[in-house]
Each structure stands twice: as C-alpha cells, then as structure tokens.
Amino acid sequence: MAQFTRFAGLSMLGLMLGSAALAQGYPERQITMVVPFSAGGPTDTVARLVAEKMSESLGQQIIVENVGGAGGTLGAGRVASAEADGYTVLLHHIGMATSATLYRSLAYDTLNAFDYVGLVTEVPMTLVARKDFEPADMAAFVSYVKENADSITLANAGIGAASHLCGMLFMQALDAPIVTVPYKGTGPAMTDLLGGQVDIMCDQTTNTSEQVRGGTIKAYAVTTPERLEIFPDLPTVAEAGLPGMEVAIWHGIYAPKGTPPEAIEKLSAALQAALADEGVAAKMADLGTAPSPAEDATPQALQAKLESEIDRWKPVIEAAGVYAD
Amino acid sequence: MDLFSNLALGFSTAATPANLFFCLIGALLGTLVGVLPGIGVTATIAMLLPITFQLEPVSSLIMLAGIYYGAQYGGSTTAILINLPGESSSAVTAIDGYQMARNGKAGTALAIAALGSFFAGTFATLLVAIFAPPLTIIALKFGAAEYFSLMLLGLVSAIALAHGSVPKALAMVVLGLLLGLVGTDIYTGTPRFNFGITNFADGLNFVALAVGVFGIAEILRNLEDERSRKVITSQVGSLFPSREDLRKMLAPMMRGTVLGSALGVLPGGGAILASFAAYTVEKRLSKEPHTFGKGAVAGVAGPESANNAGAQTSFIPLLTLGIPANPVMALMVGAMIIQGIVPGPNVASEQPALFWGVIASMWIGNLMLVILNLPLIGLWVRLLKVPYFVLFPIILAFCSIGVYSVNSNVFDLYSVAMFGLLGYVLIKLRCEPAPLLLGFVLGPLLEENLRRAMILGRGDPMVFVTRPISATLLALTVVVLIVVLLPSVRAKREEVFVED
Amino acid sequence: MKTAFDPTDAAAGVLFILFGLFFGVQSLGLDLGTAFRMGPGYFPLILSGVLILLGAVILAGSLGATAQDFGAMAWRGMLFILPAPIVFGLTVRGLGFVPSIFLTAFVAGFASLKMSPARALVLAVAITIFSTLVFSYGLGLPFRRFGPWLPM
Fold first, then answer.
1. Looking at this predicted complex, what is its ipTM?
2. Closest-CA residue in chain C for B45?
3. For residue A10, what pLDDT band results from cuts at 50, 70 and 90?
4. In a domain, A325, yes or no
5. What does the alpha-carbon distance between residue B39 and residue B51 come to, in Å, rounded to a whole number?
6. C-alpha to C-alpha distance for C113 and C122, rounded to whole angstroms
7. What CATH number is attached to the domain comprising A310?
8. C32 touches chain B (CB under 8 A)
9. Is A160 a member of any domain?
10. Which residues are registered as beta bridge partners of B191?
C-alpha cells in the first residue's frame, strides 16, 4: 500500500520542513525501499525500523513503499526492473529464496536480477500448540505427533508463509503426514489455535512470543541452533533430535543488478550503522529477534545466504509438491 | 468499581490536551481522506499509518483509532452523496442513502448516518469496556463450521438488498462469489480464473470493483441522454432530520447497534456482515418495506449504526488477544509493533493506561466526529449544487488516484474501467450491484471456511449440524429464507397485477 | 409494450448463463478434489451450476413478461469515461503524477455534452493543482510528480 514517511506526516500536520541535508554524490535525493508485503505486517515493521535509522546516516529520507501481492514476487519484480541507480531498493525475507522454486514462472531471475546490500535480521521460529494439547514436553510432543499424525491438525498461514515452510520441514523431519489446514494469514491461523480449533503450528516469535507468555498457547521448541533469551526453558529442535528443522526467517536488502558499487557500499554501511543502534536492537528484542551482526550485513553474506537457501528449499518444496503459480 | 477506576484511568489518559489533539487530528484526517471518492477505510489507514509512527504509543493508537472512525464517517458521506462506497459496509448505506440524496434529502441522510453512528459508537464503547474478556471467549468458539453457517445466513440476507427480482439478486450474489474466487487458491496455490495475469494472483481489488461497479457505472447512468433530462436533482431540501425522521430512526438505530456489536466481535468477517444483516432485519420488520431502496430512513440508520458498532467491537479481539479481526486491525497491529508494543493477551494487564486510554478515546473520537460532522453536512450537501459535468471529472480523477494508491499497481486502474463497463451493463439489465459486492466479499471467506470445516471434520458434512452454534445458525438461515421468500413471491404477484 | 418477452430480462438471463459457463468450464480444468479435501475447482463448479440455473430461471421468466423501456445508452460517456482511469494507468509511471492526472481529468471532461474544450482545460488544470497539493504534498503519497519520459 502507498506509504509515506515521518517527514511527509509532519508536513501534513502543517510543519513544512525544508529539503533534507545536502549530500555530496550519492544519495542526492530520497530513496525508495520497496517492501513486497502490505503495510503493518512483520516485514514492513522490520523495514521501517531499519529505514528510519538508515535515513539518518545517509542524510536522505528512505521512503518505504509497500508493493504487495503474489507472495512478494510482484514487489521483487518491480525492483528487478527498476533503474539501477541506487534509489530503489528491496527489503525481502526468506521468500526471496523459496519463491525461486515455489513460482515456476517468475518475471525475474532471482539469482541474476539483483545486487546485494546485506542481511538485516533472522527471526527465530517456535513450535506451538493449543494450550490444552496433551504432551508435556518436546520429547513427548514428538512421539505423540508421530503416533497420532492422522488426527492432528497443523495450521499454516498460506503457501510460502513462514509457518508453511516450517510446517513442511517439521513433517519432513518427523516423516509424519499431518493434516494441514491453510489460513489466509497468520491472524486467522492464530485465532483458531487460541480457540483450540486446530492443534499445532510453527511460526515466527514475532507472532507467538506474547501468546506463549500470556499462557494462551503452549510452546515446545525453538528452531534456532541455540536457545533463545526470551524462552530459556524451550529446547532447540536439534536438542529434540530434529536437527534438519533449523529455520529462521531471514531478511535482506537488495538493489537492482548493476547498481553503482559506491551506492551499494554506502547502503551497506548505513545498514550496519542502523543495526548497531541500540534502539533498533531493543525494538527487535521486543519481537524476539536480534539485528544481524555487522559481518552478515554485507553483500557477500546476503548473496551466500540467498544461494544456499535456494538450494536448501528446492528439494523440500519439490518433495511436498506444492507450487504457488 | 474496577470498571469505574479503569475508565477513569482511560479518560485521564485520553483526555490530556496532547491526546485530545491527536484524536481530533485523526478524526479530521480520516474524515477528509474518507470523503475523497475512491478511497476506503483500509486504504486511508494504510496511507496515514506512517504519520503516527513518531508519536507516543498511546497517542499513536488514539490517532489511528480516530482515523479509522473518521474514514468510516467519510466513507458513508461519499456513499450517500455520489453512490460511491469505499468499503463493503457503506455499500449498504449507498442503497437508500443515495436515493434520499436524489430525493433532496441528502442532509437528512448524512445527519441520520452521523447520529446513528454516534449512538452505536457510545453503546459499543461501553460494551468493549465491560464485556471485552467474556465476548472474546464466545468469539473463540467460532470455528470454520460456524463461520460458514454465519456467511450462509449473511448471503440469504442479500435477497433483501435488492428491490427488484429475487432470482436476479441471487444471480448477482453468486456472480459476486465467483468473482471473489479469482486469484490464487490458498489451499493449493493453484491460480484460477486469472487469464494468466500475474496481477490477479491475489484476486480482484475490492476498491477497483466498488469504484467501477458503483461509481463509474453511476456516472455513466447520469450521463445518459444529457440533453433531454436533468441529470441530478440540485434541490437540497432540509438539512436536518425532522421529528418524524428521528422517530423512524430510533428503533433501527438500536437494533443495528446490537446486531453490529455482536457481529463485530467475531474475527474473520463478522463485521462485514453487520451492515448487510441490519438492512435485512430492518426491511423485514418495517411496516413499509416497499420504501426500501427508494430512500428509507431505516435503511440508512440501521446499517450505519451496525457498521459503526461493529467497527468498535472489532477492537475486542485485538485488545484482548492481539488478533486482528479485519485488515484495518492488522494495520493497527503493525502500528503497535512499530511502537514497541507486541499485541497479545498481556496488553490489558501490563499496559493498563494504553488499553483503557484507547477505549476511552473511542468514545471521545466518536463525540468529536459527530460535533465535526453535523456542521459539515451543510458543506457536503452544497457539493451537490456543483454542476454534474464539473463533478464527475473530479470524481474520476480522485478515484484513479485512490485506486492506484492502494497497491501502486496500474493494473487496478484497468480493472476500474472493466468493472465500470460491467457495472453499467448490469444496471441497464436492471440488476442491482449491492448483492454482487456482498458476494464478492464473502466468496473467498465462504469457500475457505467450507473447505476448512470439511478438513477439520475429516470430510463429514455432519460437522455443520453437530456443532450447536453452527446448527443454530443454519436453522436460522432456513427460517430467514422462508420468511424472505414467501412475501416476495406474493409481492411479485401484486406487482404483476398493478402493471396490467 | 405488447411483445411476448422482455428483452432486458432475457439478456440478463443469457449474461448470467454465459458467466456460469465461463467459470464452470474453467473450474472443470482445475482439480476438483474430494469432499474431505476440496480442490480449487470444487466450490466454483457448484457456484457455476447455481448461476447457470438462476440464469435459466431469469430467462424463462422473461418469456411472457411485458417489455420495459431500456432507456438511452451513454455511448459518449463510455467513450470518454472508461478510458480515463486507463490513461492514468498508462502514464502515471512514465509522465509522472502531475501530467497524468491532468490528462485523466481532461479526457474525462469530454464525456459531457455541456463541456467545451476551454472549460475542460480549466477544470483539468484546477483538478491537477488540487490533487497535487492534497495527495502529493499533503498526504505525501510516493508518486513521482514528473516522470522519466519528460526531459527535465
């Protein structure tokens, strides 16, 4: 959805500001950051958090523009075909890698249409269940799910959603064909989990942490290599004997292929500065995530991540036989 | 006593000069943007969301809530004045509201909408304050089977939306349902009915459909045969409702409020049905059902109260569970997260000032809106004096901008032209557009819940009858169907006699 | 008024049947699934059937009914109104918001007989100024005011 920034907001309130600081070379005008999902969603939130801080160090406003649709591929396509001048960038999540397989007719070539700026954050995921779900801990959970696969229902927020990806991994790890129930988004899926209409779900901490804390749902494990600070009692999936199930929803910033190297460099530096900011870290901590370390907020790290993730998800998606196009 | 101290805390939070100011700004902005044709509530909030990001959390939510109600008020204004609903709920208002405007009672219609909304807002705010937690528990009892039965009940009410032939109204509903299914099947990811166009992958755009089928089609109808006929009545008539009008609106207003409050609590489409259901109820209970569709006061008062009450109570799942009940609430979740508040069941206990402040500001916002809007009515009505040939290019320009601003997708603009043509053809064939819109909104929900209920019930359709709430709703559907169909058959016979 | 059928209702019936057939045929090409796990074609196929049935009922009802006045068609309106949003869509990226909204309003203006070119021009300029102030400056929508097609 169309968006505008704090700057425009203030001007609306009658506080007309003059144009921002004069910069030498790039950037000379405002930069558009395309978020391929609607305003107010988790990805949009991440984008706005970093865009605000990045604007400060770049000396130019970064405007977040939401171009939603088709699992993020419409927005990504828009950036792929945008002018490679450094004034249009894309903030996308893990879907950048999965859509390369999920969509068989993309308007762009995922690996060759973009230059890389850096990784932003990796949001961990949690295995959760309705609050009166029987098993007491992760070990009991795994064996219970294996035994009762036919009668258990697994919710997800639609094809390509974080919960769908994690659910596929879970079923693959357990080799148990659980009955999956798709929803249109995380909200309705969580509602049915709260109401006990479905049994289990695997979703980002962004969506689950407050519910778990409030005791309205039960958590069994986290999908990170190490335990999380906010849930010290929850085992990791590896501890529970499901090492292949480690997954995080990583976010990265991209630019159209052929963007001038000095623009990429400045964007990357601004990203690293934003991620080092305490306020950004604090807000991310509220969501149960953390900024990527400086060495990951680099073009090389993002490129490596994208390539390895495409390879990782290809067989999983093909085995499940689900496509989104 | 608890309630009293909580509300006191709420009002002391919401009534600080700064928060009152932001509430006012929100209400004003919402009204202004809502009044611009072609921009609905969701688009308005999405556009204005970032403005609130630099405020304090409470102020930000108060301002957003203000924008939400404001846009809702503004949206009914365009529905009444130029037959252009920005949101599904005001599609119902357009039916009788626009007819009132054509009869020179635009001011009355606007005043009724404002007063009805204020009454509903007050009642619903109290409801949120007192009953939020228990209502949430009831809402959670609604599973896929219950939603399916509820939607079915809603669809049956669509028959009452039309004042013409029943088969045509039903056909329009079904066509709407089918159009609502265009896009990608969420269960399998299979694309359907999209002509291979990627831009349709997420379905047809509601705003484009509403603008096309209602707005553009109406402009075309007004341009028919300009030479021989006066296009629109420029008489403005009385600005404020007469004692008679007020008497007529009282009962519908109360019924609409109760109905809207109840449906609004249900996450997942309950609130969508509120205004449609209220219209049906009023038409059934009315002593003069033939006036519906021709400018009935109850046809504006009932649905307007219902949709405002529903808008208010749709905050309940958000505030008590952190679950967004509709797209606007989803935007609110985003706003809260940006502010560092993760919505969830703990907000009420951990941030009481925020929780109760927002509730209190709902009422303050509604009060501000009614104070703002009553004097503005004169101004809006004067818009009707603008010659039509000046008005419609303005409407078209704003609609184009509005539709484009939602997704920055030029394809939505082409859809507007396409739906405009479809809408005009349908009008010429004497098919009412409102049932089409209801079908369009409910289509995906109906299918989604049908399929989910069948999966959860392991393929046994008995799931709809064995669950008590679902069974009750289905029984109600059958009753309504009989009650609605019988007299319409009789009326049809009478109509035939009259024409002969 | 003495015709044995009502062409309007007949046309409406036929239109609904055509829509029903269109969606029905498309649905048949999709996976129907089972009642347990309905495929993407299951529900639309049922709806298409219902729509065809309703269309047939309307068509049948038109026979023997009195024909009603169809009224004039807004040909001129369709010629200028329908292209207006399309013009906006085609030019908003390339020309930018300001020229694009001007063109849209200008084209739309001609739909009315009462609109002379001079009036349309004045109106379009006024709309452009107002929209630019409100949407671009006021609400700060992220539109480029002047696009890359213009030499500036």
1. 0.92
2. C139
3. very low
4. no
5. 17
6. 16
7. 3.40.190.150
8. no
9. yes
10. B184
